[in-house]
Amino acid sequence: MTGPRRPRAAASASLMLLAALSLSACTAADAGTEPTSGAAVAPQTVTVLAAASLTDVFTEIADDFEAAHPGVKVSLSFAGSSTLAEQVLEGAPADVLATANGATMAQVADQIGTDPQIFATNTLTIAVPSGDPAGIGGLADLTRDDVRLVVCAPQVPCGAATQKVADAEGVTLSPVSEESNVTDVLGKVASGEADAGIVYVTDLARADGVEQVALDGADAAVNLYPITSLPGGDGRPTSLADAFVQAVLSDAGQAVLARAGFGAP
């Protein structure tokens, strides 16, 4: 992108003053700072792709970010981490990526050269419908033939973590369905389509119509959540992307995550 033209030597003083004011406004907008009174700053959007398990906390952090950056809108998109990584690698426009495990983020970091930082941890638990009609007491009950179990697919972080716990405990799970994210697992449990599901503790804490049963061996699979700003058109992350990442890593952002049940990095 070319820079602003220099004024000709013969330009009037008023034109030079207007150019200086315009450049100042653009600089403030690029830095994501609050515009000065009377300055016209074009609305800006920072697009954030985040794991489905971050829906509530990132929505709250985004609201706080917008309040601190007038004229800036945070566009959030939530899905399974592997889906988000594929979207980024295929060129989807995005400024920030936050996934639910390091392996998924590594695919992006290795190919486009980002520098992810861990901002939270999470563990799994068992979700059952209210009243626990199938009488689920722990991981061993999930192997019963009469139990309709739903888990995340193995290619997404919650599914990979589920398999890691099962391997650690020496059990074989035979789910009736494998979902692309934890939200869909919870939906099937809450609606009674499943007798049990394996989800993150943070997802269960915000869900209605479900109860928690402790998952034996959950400590065998502690998920690390990394976040990174993504290169823009000039090959560098925007200042707003970096600012949003710092908002998540800040004390205020960490407090939002802690209230939702996430562990510290």
TrEMBL record:
Keywords from the UniProt entry: Metal-binding, Molybdenum, Signal
Signal peptide limits: 1-28
Single GO MF descriptor: metal ion binding
Gene3D superfamilies: Periplasmic binding protein-like II
Gene Ontology biological process terms from the UniProt entry: molybdate ion transport
Binding site for molybdate: 53, 81, 182, 200
UniProt family annotation: Belongs to the bacterial solute-binding protein ModA family.
NCBIfam families: modA
Name used for this protein in its record: Molybdate ABC transporter substrate-binding protein
Organism: Demequina capsici
Gene (name only): modA
